[in-house]
Amino acid sequence: MASNAYIKLVPLSAKESVTTDEVKELFHYYKEITTKTGEQVSWHYNEAAFPYELKETNEGKGTWFYMSSDNDRYQVILLGIDQETIQDDDGSERKQTYIQITLPETATFGDKGKANEFAKYLAKKLKGELHLFNGRVMYYYPRK
User: Fold this and answer.
1) In whole angstroms, what is the distance from residue 76 CA to residue 104 CA?
2) Whole-angstrom Cα distance, residue 36 to residue 45?
3) Does the pLDDT at position 58 exceed 80?
4) 24 within domain boundaries
5) Within a domain: residue 96?
6) Which residue among 55, 58, 65, 66 is least crowded, i.e. fewest CB within 10 A of its CB?
7) pLDDT value of position 44
8) Mean of the pLDDT values across residues 74-97?
9) What CATH number does the domain containing 99 carry?
């Protein structure tokens, strides 16, 4: 059975909405900083740190994409963006954007570890509310 993690962009987040292109940019930046870490320690860290390549299908364009790996320890991680209707404490409704990170049944333990790591990175950059695969919630936005 597939498992999911969510990054919800709440009113106190850095942004109220995000596009797949913005998430792809954050993916490329993440790969870039892991490469620089490897250069500093004279090791090909980027190959072990996040061994995924970004791929997108025509049907998922603008809505979802996936990251696949040729490494035998890793398979695939799917990322999608959608909106949900939330009812606030005062009874008013609003749209809330979220990023869904999905691990299919074929995912390995390595995929789950890397997905958690990347989800934490995204949530920290976007100052979102991270709902992990195990159901726990991490808050990266300033709370009152």
Assistant:
1) 8
2) 9
3) yes
4) yes
5) yes
6) 58
7) 66
8) 91
9) 3.30.310.120
Domain that holds residue 42: 3-139
Pairing state between β 3-8 and 137-139: unpaired
* Average pLDDT of every residue of the chain: 89
d(CA 122, CA 115): 10
* Cα dihedral value 27, 33, 37, 39, nearest 10: 100
Q: Can you tell me whether residue 111 is helix, strand or coil?
A: helix
Helix (H) or strand (E) holding 121: helix 109-126
Domain-embedded: residue 144: no
Tokens of 14: 């850095």
Write b or e for each residue in 70-109: b if 16 or more Cβ atoms lie within 10 A of its Cβ, otherwise e: eeeebbbbbbbbeeeeeeeeeeeeeebbbbbbbbeeebbe
Half-sphere exposure of 44 (CA within 13 A, CB side): 3
Number of domains making up the chain: 1
Closest CA to 13 of 102, 135, 99: 99
Cβ contacts of 70 within 8 Å, gap of 6 or more: 51, 53
